[in-house]
Write a structure and sequence with these properties.
heterodimer; A: 146 residues; mainly alpha; Cytochrome Bc1 Complex, Chain D, domain 2; 2 domains; two-stranded antiparallel ribbon; 2 strands; 3% strand; B: 443 residues; 14 helices; 77% helix
């Protein structure tokens, strides 16, 4: 059976080794791969301002992008593809609570410029290579076809 | 209690209980909103309730950990806390930062990053607060007569928790990079250093309650926290599957996060084995319930339910659905809520001199809160799995699916009522103990 000092060596050795590997992979991901998958050259001032608005209004408190956030309102990673520009801008600029199917969104009443910036942010998000997320529904072609 | 300065722990526990009560209130607001009754929408919209709910969780747990540390460290180091006044200032400032942040959330003042909503200026106050706390703990250890493994593991957990808060304070234009570092805080806290804190507190409780030799318990503590880090650090990769990071994280995150339950399994087996091995039968049955309970429920909630959706093929469908809420609730409750409850149950008789070791209320509090939380977990699970099938596989629209699963939130609210009743009974017992008493000092 392990002695206490061997147990300590297991703890310290294991921790240091995995942490070094984690740092190495993180460095590789961020410096080599993330630039290829996320189109950083397309991070325009509009996209960045869109991200600021996304954060300063805590949109993540109801919605999610990249599957991250809350589960009260729709996932927005592919929202532009799904809804189109006009619908998104209408929801963002509405002075009354946007309430599809009864669930209310805060009435932000964004200016047209802010709504455009948020839209640009969603377009950037929608073009990130997410290793297949969100998966295409298996039976979409046979449901809601009206 | 052996040292006068340990009394400060009581006030941290009191703050903890107060914030937990508020957290539950905001949880109900969200539960009702999911059922379709969002009558408070104009005053407390969902994103406010959600930020308050999760941030209160973090602060009440931290307050509980800090209280436990202020109790444990003097006793383990055999030295009075170096500056009690400063500890009280730290307590008040922690409460103030928490209250200001929560009020701010009602006025659209936040950072809007999941779990890290505290606005940047307040982040700095958190940093100062935690540094003060760590300074007091480290100085006490430094001046103390003894440095035990238990106290070192606990302190290491607290120091790393503070360091890991920093990457979450950096601004990134790129959402992927932003998310990447946000998980350094959130994942490496919850599935890393907080487990160190939990392990340290659990080891202390087992030493005190079971009477098993310290050397044996501390040896196992090393193995368990070793397993935690070996699996948990690279297990961060399960948050890097679908955020714009390379595909190798699917393999690394999959393998290592699938190993994460091992640490919790180790913790559960360890607690049960020590209890059976222990010759001393401590009369504090309530503390024993919570101590064994935390080890077992954390394995189920954090270990097994985490494993249930951590593999990439499953997570592709469950990521960003209520399945996450299922795992999250039982994991936080089992691993961290219950360890704080266990510690408070152990410490209160020693702080006050009143020996409410095995009361009916205390037993009811334990069973009602746990059964209630299990029921909530099942309700979230059923809603989440139904959501995955309807929305992610059948391709039904989000809003239609949400209407279909509303009924599960009725079940959730019923179970949450049972949970809340248990917590209220626990707090009632806490209040009944009264304030710390100098006469409770052991000779």
């Amino acid at each position: 059976m392990l002695s206490k000092s061997q147990a300590r060596t297991f703890f310290l050795g294991g921790t240091i080794l995995t942490f070094v590997v984690f740092l190495g992979l993180s460095w590789h991901s961020l410096s080599q791969e993330v630039p290829k998958q996320t189109n950083p050259e397309k991070l325009t001032s509009q996209v960045i301002h869109g991200k600021e608005l996304w954060e300063s209004n805590n949109c993540m408190g109801c919605h999610s992008v990249f599957g991250e956030g809350a589960y009260y309102a729709p996932e927005l990673t592919k929202v532009v593809e799904r809804r189109g520009d006009a619908y998104i801008k209408a929801a963002l600029m509405s002075k009354q609570s946007w309430a599809p199917r009864g669930r209310k969104m805060v009435a932000y009443g964004f200016s047209e410029q802010d709504a455009n910036d948020l839209l640009e942010f969603f377009k950037w998000v929608g073009n990130v290579d997410l290793n297949g997320f969100p998966a295409k529904p298996t039976y979409q072609s046979t449901i809601n076809t009206k | 209690m052996k040292y006068k300065s340990q009394q400060i722990a009581y006030w941290f526990f009191g703050l903890s209980m107060l914030l937990l009560t508020l957290q539950i209130v905001y949880g109900f607001i969200m539960g009702f909103a999911h059922m379709g009754f969002d009558t408070l929408h104009e005053v407390i919209p969902f994103n406010t309730a959600r930020a308050v709910h999760t941030n209160l969780l973090v602060v009440w747990l931290l307050s509980g950990f800090m209280g436990a540390a202020y109790y444990i460290i003097p006793e383990e180091a055999e030295y009075e806390l170096v500056n009690v006044k400063l500890a009280y200032i730290q307590l008040i400032s922690l409460a103030l930062v928490g209250v200001v942040a929560i009020i701010g959330y009602h006025f659209n003042y936040w950072e809007g990053r999941k779990f890290l909503e505290i606005p940047r200026p307040l982040d700095w106050l958190v940093v100062i607060n935690v540094l003060t706390f760590l300074g007091l703990i480290l100085m006490t250890l430094y001046k103390g007569k003894k440095r035990t493994t238990t106290s070192l593991v606990l302190t290491m957990g607290l120091v790393f928790a503070a360091l890991l808060y920093l990457p979450g304070m950096i601004w990134f234009d790129n959402q992927t990079t932003d998310s990447f570092f946000r998980w350094w805080v959130v994942h490496l806290w919850v599935e890393g250093v907080w487990e160190l804190i939990m392990g340290g507190i659990l080891a202390y409780l087992l030493i005190k309650i079971t009477g098993v030799d310290r050397e044996v318990i501390e040896k196992w503590l090393y193995i368990i926290v070793g397993l935690t880090f070996i699996s948990g650090i690279l297990g961060t990769g399960h948050h890097y599957y679908y955020i714009g990071t390379p595909r190798y994280w699917l393999i690394i995150g999959g393998i290592f996060s699938a190993m994460e339950p091992l640490a919790f399994l180790g913790m559960a087996l360890f607690a049960i084995a020590m209890y059976r091995k222990g010759e001393k039968k401590h009369p504090n049955k309530i503390a024993l319930n919570w101590t064994l309970g935390t080890a077992i429920v954390s394995f189920v909630g954090a270990g097994l339910l985490g494993l249930a959706h951590t593999l990439p093929g499953v997570n592709l469908y469950t990521h960003g659905t209520l399945v996450t809420a299922m795992h999250g609730h039982l994991a936080f409750w089992g691993a961290y809520g219950m360890i704080v409850f266990a510690f408070i149950s152990y410490a209160m008789p020693n702080l006050t001199g009143r020996k409410l070791f095995d009361t009916t209320n205390g037993q009811f509090a334990f069973w009602l809160s746990n059964i209630g939380m299990l029921g909530m977990t099942v309700a979230f699970g059923v809603a989440g799995v139904a959501q995955v099938y309807m929305e992610r596989i059948m391709g039904m629209e989000f809003g239609i699916v949400q209407k279909e699963i509303q009924v599960h939130f009725f079940v959730l609210v019923c179970c949450a009522t049972m949970f809340a009743t248990g917590v209220i009974l626990y707090i009632y017992e806490f209040i009944k103990y009264g304030k710390p008493n100098i006469e409770a000092l052991e000779a």
